Amino acid sequence: MSACIRLYADPVQINQCKEKLEQTQEAFATMSGVLALAGNEARLKILYLLEEEKELCPCDLSDILGMSIPAISQHLRKMKDGGIIQARKERQTIFYSLKPEHLKMLRGLFKYIQQLKQQNQFV
Amino acid sequence: MSACIRLYADPVQINQCKEKLEQTQEAFATMSGVLALAGNEARLKILYLLEEEKELCPCDLSDILGMSIPAISQHLRKMKDGGIIQARKERQTIFYSLKPEHLKMLRGLFKYIQQLKQQNQFV
DNA sequence: TATTTATTTAAGTATTTGCTTAAATAATAA
DNA sequence: TTATTATTTAAGCAAATACTTAAATAAATA
Question: Residue B6: which pLDDT band, with cuts at 50, 70 and 90?
């Protein structure tokens, strides 16, 4: 694949890297999937709000984020399919909340958002 | 925007949520940008490898990941533009490394990848 | 029963993404 | 100088994204 014919390439290093990735292959697929979900501003805000408020319905989220109901609904479906949120039905209303699955990781991200916020206040 | 006319919507809660988001607006934009970069399997692996190996050139990355040089180069440019990696030139070779900027957050992600790996080993 | 309400789904579309191949740069070596 | 090497850039393209509007579900109410 590579077009480079390096004198100083370290074949041992290259192979060690390949092995490391192979052993961790599944984790990278899972992780990049979750990060891709969180890597959209609307979805990141939804996740943050679900952590703060415990649960919210599509209608509330639409109000809060100023986005259409179908747009919200489609983001929610994506995250539900991705296994990071869950739904609970109460009469006509569907309440979404964070799934425990990747909660620890998401909380790490929220903590970092708070740090960024603090930094911005002093700039 | 919303089509729902809820009897039980809590306008105080809705407004508190809106305010929280407004105060944190910039942080969400920054954060989702970084997560979008990490939310691609190839790029996540590149970031991980740069953490492990300190620095690597496009050619090494091409070998390790089994991807074409231009594909790697374009991912690197995207992450450089996004401010999460930096370049150093030595003769003909360009060495890329993680920028200190969001390193703390990225390390949190790498730690979580290791945890996922451990879990997979016992499934 | 018919209507209203909350939500989802479907279809359409403009934009973005992530690769490909080919060409352009820039530094080194012959 | 010319050729080689490492990398970037450009152009093209198929697929994925993220919205839109309109229609379909499903539960509650009149």
Answer: confident
* pLDDT tens, position by position, A76-111: 999 999 999 999 999 999 999 999 999 999 999 999
> Using 50, 70 and 90 to split pLDDT, how confident is the model at A3?
low
Instruction: Say whether pLDDT at B1 is over 70.
Output: no
Domain B25-118: which CATH number of 1.10.10.10, 2.60.120.10, 1.20.120.350, 3.40.30.10: 1.10.10.10
Is the CB of residue A34 less than 8 Å from the CB of residue A66? no
- Comparing CB atoms, the residue among B27, B36, B112 nearest residue A113 is B27
ipTM over 0.85: yes
Q: Which of B35, B117, B120 sits opposite A38 (nearest CB)?
A: B35
Q: Is any atom of strand D within 7 angstroms of residue A92's beta carbon?
A: yes
**Which residues 92-121 of B have a C-beta within 8 angstroms of A?**
93, 104-105, 108-109, 112-114, 116-117, 120
Question: Cα–Cα distance between B64 and A14 in angstroms, integer?
Answer: 6
Euclidean distance between CA atoms B85 and B46, whole angstroms: 10
The class of domain A12-118 in CATH terms is mainly alpha
> Shortest Cα distance from B63 to chain A (angstroms)?
6
- Region B33-61: mean pLDDT is 98
Say how far A84 CA is from D18 C1', in Å: 19
B30 C-beta less than 7 Å away from strand D? no
**And the tokens for B121?**
């080993």
